[in-house]
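Our preliminary data section would be incomplete without showing what the modeling component actually yields. Below, a chain of 315 amino acids is followed by its predicted structure, encoded as C-alpha cells that our downstream tools consume directly.
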Amino acid sequence: MSLSDPATAIAAARERIAPFVHRTPVLTSRRVDAIAGASLVFKCENFQRGGAFKARGAFNAVMSLSDDEAAGGVCTHSSGNHGAALALAAQTRAIPCHVVIPANTAGAKRAAIDGYGAIIHVCEPTMAAREALAAQVMAETGAVFVHPYDNDVVIAGAATAAAELIEQAPDLDIIVAPIGGGGLISGTSLSARAFGHGVAVIGAEPAGADDAARSFVARQVIPQTNPQTIADGLRASLSERTLRYMLRGVAEVVTAPEFAIVDAMRLVWSAMKILIEPSSAVPLAAMLESRKPFAGRRVGVILTGGNVDLDHLPW
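Predicted structure:
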C-alpha cells in the first residue's frame, strides 16, 4: 500500500477493518476544559478492541495479506499493545502469530499477548536482541514481519482513528496525539491533510523520552537511547519513515514531565470516569504544560489506550 494518496489509502483501510474494530466514541468534560483553557474532544481508543488504537494498524496489516503470505503467520517484536493487537488480528484470521517480547515486559501486557493466542519468544531488553530473535523466528517459520509503526499499511490503519475523529468533531482547530515510534502521529497528520480542512496536528511526548522532539527540530532521526518515562508505550525511536511524515504534516512537538503525565492520567480518571494508560495521558499533560498553542481552541485529543496494570498504579 502506498500513502502517496492518503485519502484513498485511509478510505481503503477503513473499509477493510470495519468488520473487526470499533468506531470509538468521543467524550468531552467541562471540568477538564476549564482546567485546560480550551475546548477538548477526546477520541477514546481506550475503548478499542484490545484496549488500544493498535488494533487498527494490526487488522489492516493482517487482512491485507494474501492467502499465500498469511499461510506462515505473522511476527513482530513488541512490549505491549501492538503485540496484543497483532495476536488478536491473527487469531481472527486463524493464522499463527509470533511475538518477540523483552524480558522486562509488564506482566499485564504479556498476559494480553498470550491471551490472544500468540506464540511468545522472550529476548534481552535491547532493540538489537528483539530484531535478531524476530529474524530468527521468521527464518524458521516463514512468518511475515509486521513492524509496530515503520510500515505504511500499519500507518494507514492508525490513520483511521483521526479520520473518524474529524467526522465526529468537524470543527476542530488542532488534533494532538502522542508519539512513540511515530506511527500514530504519521497517520494522524495524513488524515488531517486528507480530510481535516486546515486542522493542525501537534505531537506530544514525555520529556524523558523526547527523541521525536529533538529529531523534529534537527530534521533527522536522533535515536532514543535511554528513555525514562512511565509512558511505556512511547519509549520507541522514530524511524526515517515516520519522521518524514511528521516533517510534512506536524506543526510542532510538545513535551511533558513525568509528574504532569501522572497528574493528567489521574485527572481523566477522576473527571471523566474512564481508564487510560500513561501514554494516553501525555497529550493532555503536554497541553497543560504548554498552554499557549491551545488556549481557546477546539482540540481533538487521541486517547490511545487503556491497558493499565492495576496492581502498579503511578499514584
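Strands lie at 26-27, 39-44, 74-77, 97-102, 119-123, 144-145, 174-178, 200-206, 252-256, 298-303. The mean pLDDT is 95. Preliminary results of this kind motivate Aim 1 of the renewal.
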